Amino acid sequence: MRAVPAELAARLEEGAASLCHAWILTRSDAVVLGFTDHDRDLVVDGATCRAASGWTAGAHETAAGFAPGLSAALGALDDGAVTVEDIEAGLYDGASVACLSVDWSRPDLFVRLWTARIARIRREGEAFTAELEGPLADLDRVAGRTFGRLCDAVLGDARCGVSPAPGAVCDKRWATCVGTFANGVNFRGFPAMPGEDFLTLYPSEGERHDGGRR
User: Fold this and answer.
1) What letter would DSSP give residue 149?
2) Among 116, 128, 120, 103, which Cα is nearest to 22's?
3) How far apart are CA 98 and CA 119, in angstroms?
4) Domains of the chain (ranges plus CATH)?
5) pTM of the entire structure?
6) pLDDT recorded at residue 191
7) What is the full DSSP assignment across 70-137?
8) Considering the chain, what percentage of its residues have pLDDT values greater than 70?
9) Distance (Å, rounded) from C-alpha 41 to C-alpha 213?
């Protein structure tokens, strides 16, 4: 639930509030930039939000539950704000963005609509498009190692340890690792791991049931 300042709520009820949007962006080097769709610059939450930046909101997708949600922001490249050099230097990678609804006649009155971070920013001529992802995006990522029967090393890398001949390939199976490359000691899979077929097994008359074979 968003916390709306009491004075802003009262102005909204009276119809006296004049709303616009502001975006406050904090880059990876801690530089803070502000943008607004109002027709003049505003100072919001300590940041000067520029009106002439061309920054606008693009498509916005709000997801239910723990889905991350996606947004986009569009803007013009500007020597005084977002520059090609800074984009190419990666200063906007992972930058945080806060979108606020502001009473432009009283910029000290605002409510935070959402926060996100820049997942990707790309140049399009003299403009840029930033793809934003919400704070729950981390829950949608696979973290850590996935265990399986096949080797998850790359042929020839440090975990593999093999110096393959040009054109050599590996199908990641234990038999190939041992028989072709004699590299069983560095096999990064788990060939004895039960597969999905194990879930459907049931006792059969005449078979051993000592738990030693699958």
Assistant:
1) S
2) 103
3) 14
4) 4-137 (2.30.110), 143-201 (no CATH)
5) 0.59
6) 92
7) EEEEEEE--TTSS-HHHHHTTTTTT-EEEEEEEETTEEEEEEEEEEEEEEEEEEETTEEEEEEE-GGG
8) 77
9) 73
